[in-house]
Amino acid sequence: MGNKSLIKKILLGLSAVGPGLFLIGYNIGTGSVTTMAKTGAEFGMSLFWAVVLSCIFTYVLMVAYGKVTLVTGRTALFNFKQEFKWGWILSLYIILVLIIGELLALMGVMGIVADLVQEGVRLAFNGAIIQRGWIILFFVAILTFFLWFGRYKAFEKVLTVLVILMGLSFMVVFIMVRPDMMDILSGMVPSIPDTPGALGLIAAITGTTCSAAVFVMRSTVVAEKGWGINDLKKEKTDAFVSAFMMLFLSGIIMAVAAGTLHISGMKLDDTVEMISLFEPLGGKLAAFVLIIGITGAGLSTIFPIVLIAPWLLADYRGTPRNIHSKSSRVLIIGAMVFAFGTVFLEERPPALMVFSQAFQACILPAVAVPMFILINKQKLMGNNKASAKLNLGLVAVILFSLLTTWFAITEFI
């Protein structure tokens, strides 16, 4: 009875932070794994400060977006369209660039998942090789079936399982590797390595953690949860759990890569390199644990990615989010086609992922500035306007978003 009671309490606790778990599943995907692992491999823990700042600012913007949704009863893009003179242009711009960024990410995610499953099959069946295209087709078929017939609560449960599986996998590998804690703490001191690619990785860290898509989706999943103005405290707790878990998991991934790849002088141009390095450390078990963790991360990301277009359009129109409508199903199928991108592109999936995450950083100012204005509108928010502390946090987010956008433009253009 005691064990059943404990499990029931844990499940109740998880159900209270549904949107947070949904966004952890979205945010800590293969984009985060690749970006954090690549950063740890190339620069050790010296850029960990960027992860810490990104997660703090993620919390600030999640609270702001959730609060405005709870007070107004309307989702973010619909609020932008209604409250600003040229808000419809801003909303359409956000929709367009987020969908482009997510489709780029989808190609990278599926490519990495396929490479990892291919490696897992090779290890398990004495060198047997399954082509990447067939692996992607298998996952696309399963995900399409689930999305065709599934509902939001079912997605939430699946993502909860995948997030827990992913977290446990990385914790097991972290314990196996035992990275030096002093190296992790030294990464808290802000510094920018004077080497090519450092600015791009800082932008990618921001893009994958403090992601513009997360905040726009935040208002949608909060609305989907059915929370109201009386749930403000619950919304803050949920945002904190989400941001803290992002920091915890991102830090573990970076530390694992810093404690192995960085010491070995590897740069992680291919995610499979990470698996092959862990095999000598912990045998095939370590390799399989890592494959399960990163694959779980990838699949947990794909659900929200393919839902983003129908949800953003519903957000913009202010209409119910029905993923079973004809238009939603067409958009979902259209997104799934892009999953096969790496079958035809020469670019390696990790490089594509880092580029897509840095691209996301460029969108951040467009979602931070309008929210700062909205949450301070007396007519809209009444007594629930932003406090001085929240305003200070939002100003810091805006300045940080402009800096990382400049980093991304400098590095890639």
Automatic annotation (TrEMBL):
GO biological process: iron ion transmembrane transport
GO cellular component, one term: plasma membrane
One GO MF term: manganese ion transmembrane transporter activity
Keyword Acetylation belongs to the record: no
Transmembrane portions of the chain: 47-65, 86-113, 133-151, 158-177, 197-218, 239-265, 285-314, 326-345, 351-376, 388-409
The keyword Transmembrane appears for this protein: yes
Membrane topology: Multi-pass membrane protein
Any Pfam family matching the protein: Nramp
Family matches, as InterPro entries: NRAMP_fam (IPR001046)
Keyword list, A-Z: Membrane, Symport, Transmembrane, Transmembrane helix, Transport
Subcellular location per the Swiss-Prot or TrEMBL entry: Membrane
PANTHER family assigned: NATURAL RESISTANCE-ASSOCIATED MACROPHAGE PROTEIN 2, SOLUTE CARRIER PROTEIN FAMILY 11 MEMBER
UniProt name for this protein: Divalent metal cation transporter MntH
